[in-house]
């Protein structure tokens, strides 16, 4: 996929607003809300959905249909937000972690991690 399907909006708070709605569903009526139903079913059901949606992302990517891939990633992000909320976490924390990693090459990070592991094992 070379071109974005639509342009991002500066200061987009979609994830935070969606997380607010998801948070509000704790203890809600499982017959009236899909999110409340997932919370009602519990940890295993929530994590199962995350796994299923991740698999669907892979299958959509293999199909090579951009709109399908976007839809499946949206499903994965949504169910990941449900999982975060289930564990008392917020998307802002994930965004902060991604910001922290900005500018740090994955290869540099990997090398630093290996160095630290070696120092720890040699030190004790
Ligand atoms: N973004 C979503 C969203 N994305 C996907 N889904 C639902 O996730 C479900 C699972 O998707 P699947 O592809 O696995 O379909 P399925 O076969 O019906 O599901 P299973 O039977 O396999 O569990 C579907 O019923 C989708 O409608 C979502 N449901 C809710 N939201 C957001 O969450 C808000 C709160 O939703 P409620 O709690 O239902 O009010 C909504 O206003 C939306 O903004």
Helices and strands in order:
Elements: H1 14-24, H2 34-41, H3 43-63, H4 66-86, H5 91-101, H6 106-123
Helix pairs in contact: 1-4, 3-4
The structure holds phosphoribosyl ATP.
Phosphoribosyl ATP binds near residues 21, 33 and 36.
Notes on the structure:
The chain is mainly alpha-helical and 124 residues long. It has a single domain, classed as MazG-like (Helix Hairpins), CATH 1.10.287. 73% of the residues lie in helices and 0% in strands. The protein is globular and about 55 Å long. The N and C termini lie far apart (48 Å). The model has no long low-confidence stretch (mean pLDDT 93).
- Distinct ligands, ions and cofactors found in the model: phosphoribosyl ATP
Average pLDDT reading: 93
Q: Which strand-content bin applies to the residues?
A: under 5%
- Under CATH, the topology can be stated as Helix Hairpins
| General form | globular
**Backbone CA Rg:** 18 Å
Q: Structural class of the secondary structure composition?
A: mainly alpha
**SSE topology string:** HHHHHH
CATH architectural type: Orthogonal Bundle
Number of helices: 6
Low-confidence region ranges: none
Sheet with the most strands, sense and barrel status: none
GO molecular function: ATP binding; phosphoribosyl-ATP diphosphatase activity
EC number: 3.6.1.31
Catalytic activity: 1-(5-phospho-beta-D-ribosyl)-ATP + H2O = 1-(5-phospho-beta-D-ribosyl)-5'-AMP + diphosphate + H(+)
Family: Belongs to the PRA-PH family.
